[in-house]
Design brief:
Layout lengths: L12 H12 L11 E6 L4 H13 L3 E6 H4 L7 H9 L4 E5 L4 H9 L5 E6 L5 H15 L11 E5 L4 H12 L3 E5 L23 E4 L2 H5 L4 E4 L11 H8 L6 H4 L7 E4 L11 H4 L6 H23 L1
Parallel strand pairs: 1-2, 1-3, 3-4, 5-6, 5-8, 6-7, 8-9
């Protein structure tokens, strides 16, 4: 059966553990020898494109990049027809899309012939979550994700697709997750990546207080207040989220050795202050490094099914 990596929630424990392992273990640089991976980007990203292309190349394959201007999902051509076209030429397509439903539509249109990787959708960002887990495991667990159980993580600000995938991944590892956000920016139930669906493992707690969220935690995570497509809400969001800025004062409410995560790009002075982003407790650049590790793990896991 063709493997897809679309949401953390859809993966079993064995598959997820395999991805974490394959991301950091020695690999054969001919895993994708002579094979192409289609990169379809409705939304731009420096780190996602760099990590995806470098991971494919390190595994011996090559990438072809398709921008929104070239494809025009559901404007120039339907998502189904884009999927059918790519399926005739590629065994794997990695997509960064506006609407999560594109993945189900392409799976159906291609009769599951082509593996799909979610590089971001409006509901999930699973490759970022894998990178975040690897970063925390490296720092707190000597690289062993199983050592993260009991860790306390706070996400502060606008609870987005990043928050959803991060929370699902961490809760399943026994990590406790606090999400501090105003009511209108807080997690809501439902969707393809729903932390409320995680049974057992860590404890999820929602609060409208950034101070309550970060009290005595080991990790503080934040993301941009103004996501792509929300630019017309910039002034409103800055006003409503101003109290959720991660600065030195907020970091001081966490444990003394607490670390900082941010998936980037950072809007310095909005959701985060330079003093913490560039400070000694920031693991942001290790997150960037592990974006490539995450893609290597996902690609190896996909290929192992087909061997």
């Amino acid at each position: 059966m063709t493997r897809h990596f679309i949401a953390i929630e859809q993966l079993g424990e064995v598959d997820l553990a395999t991805i974490y392992d394959r991301a950091v273990s020695p690999f054969d640089d001919e895993t994708l020898k002579g094979q192409g991976v289609a990169l379809v980007f409705e939304r731009p990203s420096l780190r996602t494109r760099a990590s995806s292309s470098s991971a494919v190349h390190e595994l011996g394959g090559y990438t072809t990049f398709f921008s929104d201007e070239e494809i025009g999902l559901d404007s120039r051509e339907s998502a189904e027809d884009v999927g059918r076209t790519l399926g005739e030429m590629y065994a794997i397509a990695a997509l960064r899309v506006r609407h999560h439903t594109v993945f189900d539509r392409m799976r159906h249109a291609t009769s599951e012939r082509m593996s799909l990787i979610n590089l971001l959708s409006d509901e999930a960002h699973p490759t970022q979550a894998v990178a975040d887990v690897l970063t925390l495991a490296e720092h707190f667990g000597g690289g062993d994700v199983r050592q993260l159980a009991g860790l306390e993580v706070a996400y502060v600000g606008d609870a987005t697709n990043v928050t959803r995938s991060l929370a699902v991944a961490l809760l399943r590892l026994g990590v406790n997750v606090n999400v501090g956000a105003p009511a209108q920016y807080q997690l809501t139930p439902g969707g393809a990546e729903d932390p409320a669906d995680v049974i057992g493992g860590g404890v999820l707690r929602l609060t409208d207080s950034p101070h309550d969220a970060v009290k005595n935690v080991d990790v503080i995570y934040t993301d941009a207040w103004v996501s792509m497509g929300k630019e017309d809400e910039t002034s409103l969001r800055r006003g409503q989220l101003a109290g959720f800025r991660v600065d030195r004062a907020l970091m001081n409410e966490a444990r003394k050795e607490a670390v900082l995560l941010h998936c980037l790009p950072a809007h310095r002075g909005d959701e985060i202050a330079d003093e913490v982003l560039d400070g000694p407790n920031s693991l942001v650049w290790r997150q960037v490094f592990h974006r490539r590790s995450a893609m290597i793990g996902v690609l190896r896991w996909i290929k192992e099914e087909n061997e």
